[in-house]
Amino acid sequence: MILFFYSCSNRTKTVENKDSSQSNTSSQKTCSEKKDYPEITQLPFGPKIKSKKWYYDDIHFYARLISNDPKLIDFDTLVTPTFNLPKIKAIKYIHTKNDKNYICNNGKPVDSLLRLTKYRYRLPDIAQYKSYYMCGFNFNHNDYSETFRNNCPEFAYTCYGYLILYDTLTKIANVIDIYFVTYRDGFNIERRFKIDKNYHIDMVEIGTSGEDEDTSKHIENKYTISISKNGEIKMSEYE
Fold this sequence. Notes:
The protein is mainly β. The protein has one domain. Helices cover 8% and strands 36% of the residues. It has four helices and 13 strands. Strands 4, 6, 7, 8, 9, 10, 11, 12 and 13 form a nine-stranded mixed beta sheet that branches. Strands 1-2 form a two-stranded antiparallel sheet. Strand 8 (159-167) and strand 9 form a beta hairpin. The protein is globular, with a radius of gyration of 17 Å.
């Protein structure tokens, strides 16, 4: 699928993130810098916006967050560094209404089987949350446990990007899969995101049937996520 190879996109040099009102540059760590934690990546966090349909702009952005290879070919060795997450007591998986199989094949919810221990980018804190972004290519399906792959195959993505909002009071990690590439119900589906300087999060799912790459026939599901000052996380759909 062409969408997958183009967008499944930040070299670990300097990353420039832009929205319609602000541009900003943040330095990322290189693989040779063996640090315990990275510098905070300032907002906005997302592709360079050139049009109203921002989710078709700068589609290499998501893969560059994972791979150091400028040609985006060597995904196995030229990857951006990972860092250890704080100890997580439990995961709370925040899903959309289109994530219909939130209950896995063994009858257990996704968040009881998903395991996250690493992150690649540290984002600014918000409310009581420490914020992290973990992303990766999962071509060999090794990033998920065998139990997860067998019981929650719909959520074992080929490419993934999790926003992790870690509650420092309860040690519960609120997890949102703000980026993924997968195949579902006969459609190649990719979810893309942008986070503006005020922590307003937009997500769009783009789906094409089979080998069809005609953008006029794409399915688009759009979501917005807001985080209040008291830490309430709300997700809603929009046109």
